[in-house]
Design a protein that fits this description.
CATH class: Alpha Beta
Number of helices: 9
CATH architecture: 3-Layer(aba) Sandwich
Shape: globular
Number of domains: 1
Number of strands: 7
Strand content: 5-15%
Largest sheet: 7 strands, parallel
């Protein structure tokens, strides 16, 4: 059996217990990498590990329970993932949403979203860079909301736009060390975070009207893009903010007012 493309590479995926993070982890495990999953809920992490171990006969999956908003938790997760004192790939997927009119946005909600989405990505990349050598790759999970305005989602939009600018700056700075940094901006993807939007027909219809390829995405759509950007196939790609959204970035942000109407 030929060696798999990512054999012996060490990977950390934050938010790896479910959704896009889990799909990314599966793509790396399937290709032979040693993967560490970080997440707040150990039950989800254990379930994800068991499922992947069964399907891919993988025995190189580690777990790190913690919150990316806590820098000490991130440091500990990276230490677990850095087997043999090196780390090859990091995916910052942990995130949380927010939906509220701007003038009614609670300050604590703002801080919580920034702490997870933006600060969590900053902590993850900051400490990962200290363990990476030439050939290392980082990828953040951003959002269409970082590319196009989403009324009633200003907090979330700002957090994701911040991630994309962080990625560009790190790509510029870390490229001299041979480390690549990119982000993927999913459109509307079927995840737990997006379930309420998918379950509101007028909102879903408006999302679809904004997409040249008229369907919502799957977590596998995003995972394959992340796997490409982190793999040897993209060794000359860095600083890219890649929209994976059926073309939604070509048009406008969605109308979320029907979702807010009951509130």
């Amino acid at each position: 059996m030929p060696e798999q493309a990512l054999s012996n590479l060490n990977v950390l995926v934050t938010g790896g217990g479910s959704g896009i993070g889990l799909a990314c982890a599966e793509a790396f495990v399937k290709d032979g990498a040693n993967v560490t999953l970080m997440g707040r809920r150990m039950d989800r992490l254990e379930s994800a590990k068991s499922s992947m171990a069964d399907r891919y006969a993988a025995d190189s999956i580690e777990l790190a329970q913690g919150d990316v908003a806590n820098e000490a938790d991130v440091v500990r997760a990276i230490e677990i993932a850095s087997r043999n004192q090196h780390l090859d790939i990091v995916v910052a997927s942990a995130g949380r949403g927010a939906l509220a009119p701007f003038a009614s946005t609670d300050s604590q909600d703002w801080n919580d979203v920034m702490a997870t989405n933006l600060n969590g990505t900053f902590f993850t990349f900051k400490h990962a860079a200290r363990h990476m050598k030439t050939g290392g790759a980082m990828c953040a999970i951003s959002s269409i909301a970082g590319v196009r305005t989403h009324r009633l989602m200003s907090t979330y939009c700002v957090s994701k736009a911040g991630i994309d600018m962080l990625v560009r700056n790190l790509a510029d700075e870390l490229g001299e060390q041979g480390i690549r940094v990119n982000s993927v901006c999913p459109g509307l993807v079927e995840t737990e975070l997006a379930s309420a939007l998918l379950g509101t027909p007028p909102v879903l219809e408006d999302y679809l009207n904004c997409m040249p390829i008229r369907r919502h995405g799957s977590v596998e759509d995003i995972a394959q893009a992340v796997r490409f950007l982190c793999g040897p196939e993209s060794s000359w790609i860095t600083g890219v903010v890649l929209s994976v959204d059926g073309g939604h970035h070509l048009r406008r942000g969605p109308d979320l007012t029907p979702f807010m109407a009951p509130a």
